[in-house]
Amino acid sequence: MGPRIAVVGTGAVGGYAGAHMAQAGEDITFVDFWPENVEAMRSKGMKISHIQDVPEWSTDPLKALHITELQNLSKHDPIDIAFVCVKSYDTAWATTMIQQYLAPGGFIVSLQNCINEETIAGVVGWGRVVGSIASSITVDICEPGHVRRASGKKGEGHTVFRVGEVHGRVTDRVKEVHRLVALSDSAKITDNLWGERWSKLVTNAMANGMSASTGLISKDILTNDVLRGFGARLGSEAIRVGQALGYQLEEIHHIDPEIIARAGEGDAKATAEYDAHRLEEANKPGGGAHRPSMGQDMVKGRRTEIQFLNGFIVGKAQEIGIDTPANAALTDIVTRVEKGELEASPQHILDLRLN
Q1: Is the pTM of this model over 0.85?
Q2: At which of 145, 168, 191 does a domain end?
Q3: Both 185 and 234 in a single domain?
Q4: Residue predicted with more confidence, 156 or 172
């Protein structure tokens, strides 16, 4: 028999990956906080659509629980693998809720933005934590029971899922998580979870808060010279912090991180290479025609993860004595927009004057 799986937080990423697992016949239970989403999954299943290349499809009706019904899991065999797919600010309590239903050898997979493994370990211990990164997956939950992806499958062109142990060794449970996420799209096992995590953090730090603060989709940010340059500045600061912390960084936006770092520091050659790459990306058919997850949250009036992305980078930088003025400024702007003190506008970035 296969593992008993739970997906805690059936939003865009959890819904996309979990729907593919369900379609493949895995024993999976979805847990969510949005009543309409739970009801849609129960009655109709999960619909998956892509902007290009992949026909729309739906699962059969799914086993889905509202968070208030989670105690029903006690009537069944315990959970072997719990994918936690909630926003970072919900990680601790979501982990606490699901941990009591884990099997003795069960574990939790952080399939989230940001770096949440330490928070999860604080609840269940380091031995029960596995990390998984969804890189450039570009999904959103556009209505109850419907996840839409702003692309086709990445396949060999880009590895979407990266799965690893915190200690870097390849284990049977990592192989099993790899098998499960690979049902959705390309995947690999990594021995560099922390480097992958920080690289994904940089990717998100360059895009998410920019969309949330400006109200723009990715394409409109990338094709504006000032906004694109500010994105490089954000990435540069974050890369230098990650390097100082000792992380082995991976490619970011399919660019050598050192190119982004030097572009953000004003190096002309690196800037030209960075600009050419990002503009080529934006001008592909459908390129950048999506709103990053934090931009989606802002439009929906939801709390953002800015303190766990750019704010996290600022905090780590302060610990080691590195200045990150661009990330600090963006964190402040997004926080003020989120609170309603400012309206989302590109002018907030265009008017910045940083040393």
Answers
A1: yes
A2: 191
A3: no
A4: 172
